[in-house]
Amino acid sequence: MIEDFKAASFMKRLGAMFYDFMLALSFVMVVGFFSMVVVMTIFSIDSVEAGSPVAKMFFPYLLFLSFVFYGWFWTHGGQTLGMRAWKLKLVGETNIRITWGQAFFRFCYAIISWIPLGAGYLWMIVDKKKQTWHDKVSRTYIADLK
Description:
Elements: E1 6-7, H1 10-42, H2 53-75, H3 81-85, E2 88-92, H4 100-114, H5 119-126, H6 133-138, E3 140-144
Antiparallel strand pairs: 1-3, 2-3
Helix pairs in contact: 1-2, 2-4
């Protein structure tokens, strides 16, 4: 139950987000590079043309890799590396561990939360439970472990 945990502060969440963004970006770049090498080798091409099917599928593939990065950490212990550094943990409203479904909704709505100039994230400042839009939709909560 979320009442058992102290809510994480805005600044701690921001710190963990920055840390995790840098790690996720590195992960996506490395895996994306090797994936492109494999695709280019399989199809015997020297470069990928803009507008080609491979180029059109690359961005959704990078989004998928990002989801796998965050989803795996969230469903296996509830902490990304940035969250561990800032002593934060993602918990479900009804149980401690979250499901892949919750991770999917959280990931998708976290992207949507950025669209209106980060309003979905800033919502936690005025919310009584200190939840963002994607916390509410995915029925999750960022707890401060310290």
